[in-house]
Structures are given as structure tokens and as C-alpha cells.
Amino acid sequence: MYSGINISQTDARPMYLQIMEQIRARIAAGDWAAGKELPSIRALAVALNVSVITIKRAYLDLESEGVIVTRHGKGSFVADVNGLAGELKDAELDKHLAEAADIGRQLGLTEDELAARLRRALKNLEKK
Amino acid sequence: MNDKHIEMRGVRKTYKFFTLDDLSLDLAPGEVMGFVGPNGAGKSTTLRLALGLIAPDAGEIRVMGHAMPDGQAAAKRDIGYVSGDMRLLPHATLGWHMDFVKSIYPEWDGGYAATLIKRFNLRPEQNARSLSLGEHVKATLLLALARRPRLLILDEPTTGLDPVARHEVISEFMDVLRDDNRSILFSSHNTVDVERISDRITFIDRGRIVDCSNKEDFLDRWRRIHVQLPAGTTLPSLPNIVGRVNDGQFITLTTNQFSEGLLALVGSHVRDVQRMNLEEIFVANVMHHREARGQ
Lengths: 128, 295
Known about the structure:
CATH superfamily of the largest domain in chain B: P-loop containing nucleotide triphosphate hydrolases
Number of strands of chain A: 2
Shape of chain B: elongated
Structural class of chain A: mainly alpha
CATH architecture of the largest domain in chain A: Orthogonal Bundle
Helix content of chain A: 55-70%
Distance between the termini of chain A: 35 Å
CATH topology of the largest domain in chain A: Arc Repressor Mutant, subunit A
Largest interface: A-B, 18 and 24 residues
Oligomer: heterodimer
Radius of gyration of chain A: 18 Å
Largest sheet of chain B: 6 strands, mixed
CATH superfamily of the largest domain in chain A: Winged helix-like DNA-binding domain superfamily/Winged helix DNA-binding domain
Largest sheet of chain A: 2 strands, antiparallel
Strand content of chain B: 25-35%
């Protein structure tokens, strides 16, 4: 049922981070809407063949990020926050921009050159 | 009320060339514990003590609420045990073995047994002698699982299995855990399997428990820190460093208590910080303890 979530043993990131990222992606994409109930910790552990403690860790961290809410005895739900999906996308954009800025600096690009590259990337998208 | 599935305290068992000493171990319902150690570390001896197959020279063992080994007859109803070196009767069929186990254990679940036969791709009419190694392991697991015991004790359950069979078997273990009143204690050399499905991990080496912790804590605490130290500079004294390798200006530090504070102490000389997988943690842990004990 949740076989779409994959864990790679060659990924250097720990398993709980891989799970968190794939859950965030589903929420950001709108596949998992606000209020949707997440599988129980034990059910997801069984489905992914991963220990209960790993899923627990992923849910706890998602909760402290405000992405999901856990109600004791009721389960975990996608947080009902306005614009949460947008916020997640926003955070993702910032992360990629930070990486781009870093590479730009390594290449010795000036601020204007980097901005020009971004404009070019936008133009290329429009052409498609 | 004691609701632990396994509780071992200060257990000792002495053989002529081997001593298991000061062994303490807990397993709670709903938990999977991976028991990891080199060959001859005392894994099988520990599991056999938990089963009541052998008696300790000192210490206390309680399993499913029963004191062992005295309460083993009562405890065994609730325990399923599978070991890689277990052998079925070569001239009897798998079906005969199933009937035999069913006649002893009234909890036998025929429907589940039939499901497992299908999932494991086994045939009841097959003679045990004609089973491949993988089929043999799956058959012994089926005989234990279909009794639906609350505690599964598995000694190297995946050794010798091909990747597909291993996947089938591990999925079945996890399926058991749907019920949060069941638990699994399993020993393995395969740290990939252990890392994946264990909630807690115990390392054992040369008859002693080296470390025991929640798996996520293990993975969080251990790190390798790569440092480049210009000639003429020295590192301040650092806490919680369990390994250090020098190679010219380059130093690799291994820590078992990683923190940002530790990183701050090393300061600008840090080149890179790496997480470690369970196998690397295991090896570093064992080497560190052997050194500390002067072996």
C-alpha cells in the first residue's frame, strides 16, 4: 500500500531522513492533503520492512517541524496549516538556491552572473 | 508486574575455553532486538540460556515471566526458536513435520501455515532431504511462525539465504510485529538486516556485552571526523574519541558521542564529518573495547 516509499541502503542519509523526505514530498505535491491520516507507525514499519523505532523517529521529527500532528490514541495526520504545502515548496527552493549559490561561488561567478544564469534557466523553461 | 519478554541479569556461564560473563539483556513486547557479534562471541550461548536449554552458573534469567531454566516447559509454549543449524528429519515430509508440531502445540494456526507455504513457495509433500538450504530454513521458520508464539528467538535466521529468500523471510518477521505484543530476538552477522529491522541492538564480543542501545541512538552518536591539521598545530584534547588514525596532516577521528560542541573544539580544521553504518560502528566499537581491555 505504501510501497511507493523506498529506502536505499547505499544512500548515506539515515533511513528516518529518507522516509521524512518522501513523506514531505507527498504533502508538498498535494497527494497527501491536510487532515489525511498517516499510516500507523507499526503499519508503516511492516509495509516498509523497517524497524518501528525508525518510523517513530521520522514521525517525531516531522511533528516537531509542524508537518504532521499526532493525537494520542487517534493517530498522526497531515497538519492542517494553511499553505503548508507552499511552505514546504518554499523551503525546498531555498535549499536548492543555497546549493546553487555555493557552486556559483566555487566557479567564481559574480552576483549578476549568477542572477543571469537563473534568468536563462527560466527562459529555457518557457521555451519548453 | 513484570511484562518484559526477556530479562537477563548478571548472567555467567563458564566453559573450559570460553566464559560468558556479566550478561544483562532486556526485551520488551513489540520490540525487535538484533544481537550482533563475531563468531564465537557467545551469541548462540546467550540464546540457548534464554531458551532454558542450558543453565547459567550465576545470574537471573526470566523469559515470558518464567524463571529459567526451571520454568522452561511453561515458557516454551510462548517461544518459537529457529536456528540455522536446525535439521528436519530427512526422510519425513514437511507435511509430516507440520502435523507433528500441530499435535504438540494447540495454538497451531493452520490457515497461517497454508499462507506461509504459498509465500515461501514450499510443498508439504516434499521430503526434508530434498529441500535446498534456503527451503530448509524457510521450512523451519514456518514450523515456528505458524504456532504464533509471542516471542521469536532466531539464531542466524538469514545465513545462507539468497537475496530473494532473505527478503521473503524478513518481510515475514516484520509481519509478526503487526501485533505489538510480539517480540523478536535475533542474532546475525548480517548487519544490513539488523540495521534495517531492529529497534534495539546489542553488540557482544568475547563473552561480554560491548554496547546496547536503541538503534537510532547508535546511528546518531557515532561519526567519523576528518581533520586536516597544518604542520606545527596540534589538536586540543577531545572527549569521547574512540579511534584516531594519523596520516601526515590528515587525521581521522572516530567518536561515539558526536555533538556540535565536539566539532567546535576541533574548529576550522574539520574537513568532513561522516555518518557510519551499523557495520562500521560495530567494528569500531569492538576494536575500541578490545583495546580498552588490553586484549
